[in-house]
């Protein structure tokens, strides 16, 4: 498995570079920052600090408004033992990956709390396991077959130094604090948050840089053999050009050719599946056209008319009259029958029913 380690400071563009390389090389990528963020969110939830966090569609400011009067005094007072126990349970519950896709992990509240969690050696040990597992058996990209995976990208702070010191390619991405604050500030604005100021973003990034660089375990620093890329004065296209040049030189053409083949195969299979779907839809449409014909009502649907009480009463009295008349007729008939019966006894009929003289 070819391993690419991408480390760097917050908001330096590591995520963008990982995603770009991931789709160019068809290497699945793992954002390890999201794993630490997932742990931080879980701890906040477990200690009821996340009550204001409701669903995944809130903007960052709305999430922060979970603490309308500012952060509680004891926000950072959760003990290390509390965090270790919580993360241990979280790790064994197998929920870390599920949490790592939640939008809430990107909230300012979580961002400020992650360094508290990420500096604990036991927490880093649990996360190490995830990172090793991922590189052995990475989660395939959409449409990709597991057996075609030949490499993985792991992105974080200590990948090239601690997790994969033997990685095939190590990149260390950075940018000036001002350039990163500007980018993050724009991200907030684009997400609908118009209240977080540039100064707040700047201060928050500065605090995180210090926490990342100065922690005792796995501090943020470039590996000796890492290629350092400063993106302060680069736009996205320049970053892509630069990264691609490095990948062609260091990873090799055969990997790009392999990725091209995989993409063509995925596109062909997607087209085949789409055609099959269209054929099935057409078949269903034919069946659906026939079905309503069979179920069509034979005549026009009866028109609703209000009940006419008069006509019901009239019909009732005609019925009563008819019944009375019937009983009268029956009486007359029975009296006539009685009169005739005596005469009948006296008359004689021949074989063919004629009255004998
Ligand atoms: O890359 P990010 O901003 O999403 O990272 C979130 C936090 O996690 C950040 O405070 C640094 C920490 N982190 C870490 O300590 N080690 C890693 N490998 C990745 C992230």
Strand order, biggest sheet?
A: 2-3-1-4-5
As a percent range, the share of helical residues equals 55-70%
The amount of beta strand, in percent, is 5-15%
Distinct helical segment count = 13
Instruction: Specify the biggest β-sheet.
Output: 5 strands, parallel
* Helix/strand order: EHEHHHHHHEHEHHEHHH
What is the rounded Rg?
A: 42 Å
Basic shape:
elongated
Bound molecules: 2'-deoxycytidine-5'-monophosphate
- Which spans of ≥5 residues are poorly predicted at pLDDT below 50? 52-65, 293-306, 340-353
Protein described:
By secondary structure, this protein is α/β, with parallel strands linked by helices. Helices cover 59% and strands 7% of the residues. It contains 13 helices and 5 strands. It has helices spanning 14-25, 32-46, 60-64, 80-93, 96-99, 108-118, 121-136, 159-163, 177-190, 198-214, 236-250, 253-295, 309-346; strands at 2-8, 29-31, 151-156, 169-174, 227-230. α2 (32-46) crosses α6 (108-118) and α9 packs across α10. The protein is elongated. 28% of the residues are buried. 2'-deoxycytidine-5'-monophosphate (DC) binds next to α2, α6 and α10.
């Amino acid at each position: 498995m070819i391993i690419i380690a991408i480390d760097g400071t917050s908001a330096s563009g590591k995520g963008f570079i990982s995603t770009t390389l991931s789709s160019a090389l068809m290497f699945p990528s793992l954002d390890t920052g999201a794993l630490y963020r997932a742990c931080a969110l879980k701890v906040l939830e477990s200690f009821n600090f996340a009550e204001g966090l409701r669903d995944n569609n809130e903007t960052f400011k709305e999430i922060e408004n979970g603490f309308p009067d500012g952060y509680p005094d004891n926000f950072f007072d959760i003990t290390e033992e509390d965090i270790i126990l919580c993360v241990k349970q979280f790790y064994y519950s197998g929920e870390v990956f599920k949490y790592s896709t939640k939008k809430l992990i990107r909230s300012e509240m979580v961002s400020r709390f992650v360094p508290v969690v990420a500096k604990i050696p036991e927490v880093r040990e649990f996360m190490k396991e995830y990172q090793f597992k991922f590189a052995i058996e990475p989660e395939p990209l959409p449409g990709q077959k597991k057996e075609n995976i030949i490499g993985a990208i792991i992105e974080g702070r200590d990948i090239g130094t601690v997790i994969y010191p033997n990685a095939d390619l190590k990149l260390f991405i950075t940018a000036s604090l001002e350039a990163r604050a500007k980018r993050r500030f724009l991200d907030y604005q684009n997400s609908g948050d118009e209240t977080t100021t540039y100064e707040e973003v700047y201060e928050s990034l500065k605090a995180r840089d210090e926490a990342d660089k100065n922690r005792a375990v796995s501090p943020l620093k470039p590996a000796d053999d890492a290629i350092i890329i400063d993106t302060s004065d680069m736009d996205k296209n320049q970053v892509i050009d630069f990264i691609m040049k490095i990948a062609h030189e260091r990873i090799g053409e055969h990997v790009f050719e392999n990725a091209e083949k995989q993409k063509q195969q995925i596109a062909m299979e997607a087209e085949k599946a789409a055609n099959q779907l269209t054929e099935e839809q057409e078949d269903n449409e034919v069946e659906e056209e026939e079905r309503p014909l069979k179920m069509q009502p034979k005549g026009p649907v009866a028109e609703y008319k209000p009940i006419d009480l008069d006509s019901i009463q009239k019909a009732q009295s005609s019925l009563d009259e008819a019944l009375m008349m019937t009983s009268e007729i029956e009486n007359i008939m029975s009296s006539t029958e009685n009169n005739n019966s005596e005469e009948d006894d006296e008359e004689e009929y021949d074989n063919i029913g004629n009255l004998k003289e």
